[in-house]
C-alpha cells in the first residue's frame, strides 16, 4: 500500500507553548536520526501534524475546485462552485457521478494525505516515549497531540470511506504493506481510545486554543470526542448508547468555562459573526487550521469574490465563488428574524468599492472575506475554524435529548445558539417554542440549527450521512425545514440519491497497488 510508506522528511518547526504556532523560524530539513532521537526532532515531528491537519489539501482552498472538505457541500446539492467547469469535482458531485474512474486523482490525494498524517503520528507515538531530553509532561503533551491528529484523520476516513485499513505502527519498509480494510466499528474504537488517552494521560492544557499557542487543548480533544460519539450513535453503526457519551464529552467543554459564544456589539458591523470573521483570538474558537499572511497565507479570500465582478483595486489575478450557497439553501433561514442571512454576516451579496456598489446576484461566503488580502496583499491571514463553541452546544443539545429526553438543559443549549441569531427575539420566546416538543421534534430543531449555524463549517454532508435525513426548505415560508429519507430523494440538480452515494469510492490507484482492498459497493 504505497501511500502508507512514510518518507521521513519534515520541515523543522520550533516548538513553542506560548507563541503563535506559525511564528517565523528557520526551517531546514533534519536527518532521520535527529528526527527520531532528539527532542528537537520530536517537536518538529509533532509540529508538522498541525500544518497538515487532515492532509495538506483537505482544508487548503488553493484552486478553482475549492478545498477538498467542500466536497460534502457539493454532494448535498446545496452548494455550487463557480469554477466547476475547470475542476470537475464540484460538477460530478452535484451529478452524483463520483466514481473512481472520474475522480481517482482527487480521492487518491485525499486518501494519501490523511494516511501521511497518520503515519507521522504513528512515528511520533513509537519513538517519543523512549526519547531522552524530554520531561514526562512534555512527552505526554506531544503524545496526546499525535493521538489527536491520528484520531482526527481516521475519523475523516471512516466517515467518508467506511471500512479503511487501520495502521497504528510506523510503516518503515516494504514488508506487510498490503493491509486489508478494518471494520468501521474497530476504527471508531481506536479513535475513541486515542482521544481518551489524550484527555486522561496527555498533559493537555485547559486553556483556549487561541490562548495556548494554537496547540491542542482538552476542549479540542473533548469536542472531537463528542462529535465522534454523535456520529457513532447514528448511521451506519447506530450504536445509540454513544449519545450519552457525546453528551458527557460536550458537557466537559461547557462546564470547563473555558469557552463561550462570541456576543454581538452595538451594530450589525460588530455582530458576533463579523467579530469571528476578523479575529482569531476569541473564546468561541476551539480548533482550526492556522494561517499567517507572511509565512503561510490562506487562499480563502480569493474564493469569496464572484468572478462575475471585478471591483477596483482587487489584488488577485482571478477570484471566484467556490462555495456558493444556492437559493434553496438560503431558504433554510428566516430573513425577517435571522441575522445570519442578512448581508455581510455569514454571507454577502454586494460589495462597495471606489464609490461603486457591485451587486452579485448570488450569495458568497463572507466569513472568509478579508479586505486587506483582497485589495492590498493578495495573502489571507485568518484561520479556518474546524470546531467552535456553537458546535459543542448543538452536539450537547442533540445528545442530551436522545439520551435523557428534552430537558431544560438541552433546551438551554439550543436556545443559546438560536437566540444569538434571532437577535431581536426575546430569549424566553425561543425557549417557550422549544419546551414541550417531542424528542424527535426537538432533535430536528437541532438539525435545523446545525444547517444554519455551521453552514461554513462543512457539516452538512456528515449530518446527512449519520441521520440518513435530507433537509428540504419550504418554498413559501423561508426558515421552515422538513426532513425526508435521503435515499430516493432528488437533490437540487435533479439527481437521486442511492445508498452507495453515502460513501465515497476508494481511489483506484490504491486498489491496484494493494490487492487486499475491495471497492465500496456501487462503484
TrEMBL record:
Positions of the SusD-like N-terminal domain: 108-230
Signal peptide residue numbers: 1-22
Keyword Transmembrane (UniProt): no
Domain of life per record: Bacteria
Gene Ontology CC terms, in alphabetical order: cell outer membrane
Record's subcellular location: Cell outer membrane
RagB/SusD domain residues: 301-523
Keywords (A to Z) from UniProt: Cell outer membrane, Membrane, Signal
Pfam families: SusD-like_3, SusD_RagB
SUPFAM superfamilies per UniProt: TPR-like
Family to which the UniProt record says this protein belongs: Belongs to the SusD family.
Protein name stated in the entry: Starch-binding associating with outer membrane
